[in-house]
Specification:
Shape: globular
Largest sheet: 7 strands, mixed
Number of domains: 1
Structural class: alpha+beta
Helix content: 25-40%
Number of helices: 3
Strand content: 35-45%
Number of strands: 7
Order of helices and strands: EEEEHEEEHH
């Protein structure tokens, strides 16, 4: 199995979170493969900018998730190990950076986003990240 280290952002603006819909119809958060000797934090910030056109500020670590799948192009199983970061955006402005890979995007109320997200581990990550976001920004629960 090929192991790939990745990093991504759980990006909040006010009481909304940023999601992307990929070409498979899955609602996900922005993430990318760690390359070019970048840190996980640098990769997360870069991926949020590349995929969503958002300048995000890291507030805290959010945790890790693991995704296993079979890569048809590589003809072998792959495991993406993703380090996530709680991030804050100053506005809800976004731009889909890779329209060939992402078909929709936006900032959604957290309760709505939890229902939209495709993977259960991402729903749990979002819920935990929302708590950390409020702890760091001083917003009420």
């Amino acid at each position: 199995m090929q192991l790939r280290d990745c990093a991504g952002g759980v990006v909040f603006c006010g009481e909304k979170v940023f999601l992307l819909k990929n070409e498979k119809g899955e609602w996900v958060m922005p993430k990318g493969i760690i390359r070019d000797a970048l840190t996980a934090e640098e990769t997360a910030v870069q991926s949020v900018r590349k995929e969503g056109g958002i300048t995000g500020t890291i507030l805290d670590s959010a945790g890790r998730t693991y995704y296993e799948f079979y890569s048809i192009t590589r003809q072998r199983p792959v495991c993406n190990r993703v380090a996530w970061f709680v991030m804050k955006a100053d506005s809800e402005d976004y731009r889909i950076g890779e329209p060939e890979k992402m078909t929709a995007a936006g900032f959604f109320p957290v309760a709505e986003a939890v229902e939209m997200i495709t993977y259960s581990q991402d729903r749990s990550l979002l819920t935990q990240s929302y708590r950390k976001y409020f702890e760091k920004t001083g917003r009420p629960d």
